[in-house]
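Dear U.,

For the methods section draft, I wanted the exact inputs and outputs in one place so we can describe them consistently. I've listed the two proteins in the order they'll appear in the manuscript figures. Please don't edit the token lines directly; just add comments below if something needs changing.

First protein:
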Amino acid sequence: MNQEVERLWDLQTVLTQISEREKQLNAKPESFAMVDREWEAASEETTRLTAQIETLSKERRRVEGELSDQQELLKKYQGQLMQVKNQQQYAAAWKEIDATRKHVKELEDSALKTIGEIDGLQAQLDERQEGHDALKKRWDESHAAWQHSLADLRGEVAALEKKASSIEERIPDALKREFHQVYRQRQNIAVAVVINDSCSNCRTRVRPMLQQQLKRGELVHCEGCHRILYLERPSP
């Protein structure tokens, strides 16, 4: 069992190294992060302006449709004015005409205001899009330089993954399943080394009886965090 625990510790060490390098692969260097933030902000602003223009355009179409209906209604009322037969009907007709004219004026003002707002937003959008290609080129160049710098790191990850597979091939299936179960449940740390008679991860003291089991090469779990414990061999 002692060799198997040694292999579990070796596997844990290699998997930790892989995890550390993968974090480095995903961590943006400041040289790229600055351009990326600028590109993201520009994209968000473009999306926001485009959405506002679309919303206002829909409102403009709605207002213009209603305006057209009200203008037709006004023509109808004006035509009916010529057909009234008494003063009461004449006054009622003029009341409808005045109300409709007022509504038409409100709709015309609303349409003009919306057109002005759309023009202002479109000017902002056009200004943003003028610098779009240059900013995208800077982003592409900075991203390519970052990815190129990661070639060696990717090579290290590939080599470590190969090493991890080689170690796993020499671990019994049941023990390997137990290792990976603890690994998933305990924040990717399945094996904890014993330092000063305590678990290095949760600081739970390892009882003397368990220490004797470890020295005999038996599989022992921490009584605090349930990780597999590893006792380093004394230096010769």
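Second protein (the one for the lower panel):
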Amino acid sequence: MNVLAFDIETVPDVKNGRRLFNLQDLDDRQVAEVMYQQRRQESGTEFLRHDLHRVVAISAVFRSGTRFKIGTFGDEESSEKELIQRFFDGIGKSFPVLVSWNGASFDLPVLHYRSLVHGVNALRYWDTGDFDKDFRWNNYLNRFHHRHTDLMDVLSGYQTRATVSLDSIATLLGLPGKLGMDGSKVWDKYLEGNITAIRNYCEIDALNTYLVYLRFELVRGRLIESEYQREYQRVHDELASSDRSHLQEFLTAWVNPN
């Protein structure tokens, strides 16, 4: 079975905000602040509507057969359209089980809206049986199917008041969690031009998500203890062989890889 544990990072879509609120004379930081203010007035929170986010990174852990890869789609110069197209192209090639934390409520809806903006083709992702009859019974869009597992939803029993953050559950399991970075810092990093930091942070979230997923597979009986230990060790060994500093930091902070 192919597994793709993924995460996205976003920034305010200031181009759209500038148009919506007639802010032609303001710079990007000022436009974003107006967008946050408008949102606070609407809902009491600064968290922008899904359609006002712009994707700047999509990272994933991909596990298939003997393959294990941690990475981010595209490169630092890739456009938003290219990032999203590559993500959906990957789904179309390998039909993985998607694994996320809050992906059903945030990551995927944002990707849906931004796909509309850019005209991104994602035939197999949107298929519910018209192209492949097997997708009628198991597709990415139905909450009760298995091609997408939103761990936050499943573990909370789909009860909003029972949800916890990825950082909380990761650290509960002895995983490193966020490593000092969180989503509130992404916009500032973006304004600084530090796309590398955003991509690295996104990869750490994808890695935490995948490791939580392994524990979930153990408790629901899809992995036996020896298989679970072997998969954990596989991740540990892959990190140990990497020369990428954020992955080495993750490995150092990992309390108990077994």
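Candidate sentences for the figure legend, describing the second protein: The chain has a mean pLDDT of 95. The domain at 3-253 is CATH 3.30.420.10 (Nucleotidyltransferase; domain 5).

Thanks,
Y.
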